[in-house]
Structure prediction request, 196 residues.
Amino acid sequence: MRTDLAVIGAGPAGLAAALAAAARGLHVTLVDAAPEPGGQFHRQPAAGLRAEHPPHHRRRTWTRLRDGLAASSVRVLAEHHVWCVERETDGTTVHALLGPEQEEPAEVRATAVLLATGGYETVLPFPGWTLPGVLTAGGAQAMLKGGLVVPGRTAVVAGTGPLLLPVATGLASAGVSVAALVESADPRRLARHAGA
Ligand SMILES: Cc1cc2nc3c(=O)[nH]c(=O)nc-3n(C[C@H](O)[C@H](O)[C@H](O)COP(=O)(O)OP(=O)(O)OC[C@H]3O[C@@H](n4cnc5c(N)ncnc54)[C@H](O)[C@@H]3O)c2cc1C
Prediction:
């Protein structure tokens, strides 16, 4: 399969980039390992749950991206796990493995490749971090959004950065009692994001 631009990652960044490039006339292929576009921010509940109202914020932004994608010429390749991008004389080949088992190979040949594969949580080990009931903030958020499950009845949300806020509010609105929100950096940094 040949394309002008292969965008790897269908989170907010990759979706916006793919739509912008397609609107300017490029043939765009959007490749993502997940079954649905959305990335971490717009992660959708698993299809089998048949949830009508995914519990994520910025619903209007998601609707705009989702509808924009459906109306666009962007070709979406879901459940394509990219494992290698190879530079060649006449372009670039994106190598992926298909489906949850990641067994069947697939290739996308592109003139240009845009990486929008997102960020990762940095987890600093501390005594007790492997105990049952201890999980990362992003992990709790993924469970809540993707599985519609909460990690317990009471939670302490601890770490640093603005992700703590949507995690704490997401847990609280799902019925979890948030006993404390613990920010290790200067609390004024966190306060800057309080409005959002
Ligand atoms: C676990 C977790 C949960 C988060 N939850 C929130 C939240 O609730 N609210 C918030 O504001 N921020 C959250 N964040 C921060 C998040 O990174 C940003 O809000 C936002 O989603 C970043 O957008 P993005 O498009 O750059 O990347 P992402 O949204 O991370 O999207 C990257 C996409 O790239 C795909 N991808 C990555 N590697 C490959 C590969 N090799 N092959 C194919 N596809 C690949 C992924 O499947 C994903 O869909 C979370 C971060 C993490 C790690």
